[in-house]
């Protein structure tokens, strides 16, 4: 009995920790300290945040910054709603499968889930195009060069050229504490 109680308590503690875990990312917050900034759920998108961090380099005007921030807020709110709708449809699909619903109903629900996912992809694409519409051609070129340089620097630092993490410990890949 005591053993069962201890095991049940352990399972509940693990479940509670997993449920409250922050699976998203956070941008740098006060004094550029990572982990205390605004939350980005599921790593969905933060290209706009990157663009705003490079505002000086790409010479964004104050008007462009305010337009981009408002666009990001509107888009983020819309994507939260779309994601909630998708999760509800996926939950309904799982329920239908478990309860052996008629095949036509399951297939119809699968189509609905697919339409919702496609709608989210289209919304992201349209948002990206709207953001690009706020920038000048020179700003877009400079932004593309900054992204390319960032990607190249990151690849040089973390990978050995074959797409594999460096084994000599010189990459920034988080280690599990074991020395290789």
Structural summary, described in words:
This protein is an all-alpha fold and 180 residues long. The chain has a domain of 95 residues. It is 67% helix and 2% strand. It has six helices and two strands, in the order αββααααα. The chain has a two-stranded antiparallel sheet with strand order 1-2. About 16% of the residues have low confidence.
What's the layout of helices and strands?
Layout: H1 2-20, E1 25-26, E2 39-40, H2 47-53, H3 55-58, H4 62-98, H5 103-134, H6 137-158
Antiparallel strand pairs: 1-2
Helix pairs in contact: 4-5
Give structural attributes.
180 residues; mainly alpha; two-stranded antiparallel sheet; 6 helices; 2 strands; 67% helix; 2% strand
Task: Please tell me what the overall shape is.
Answer: elongated
Mean pLDDT over the residues: 75
Instruction: Give the H and E element order.
Output: HEEHHHHH
**C-alpha termini separation:** 43 Å
How many whole angstroms does the radius of gyration measure? Answer: 22 Å
Low-confidence stretches: 18-45
Q: Biggest sheet: strands side by side, in what order?
A: 1-2
Biggest β-sheet, characterized?
2 strands, antiparallel
Number of helices: 6
What structural category do the secondary elements indicate? mainly alpha
Q: Into which percent range does the helicity of residues fall?
A: 55-70%
Please state roughly what percent of the residues sit in beta strands, choosing from under 5%, 5-15%, 15-25%, 25-35%, 35-45% or over 45%: under 5%
What is the total tally of β strands? 2
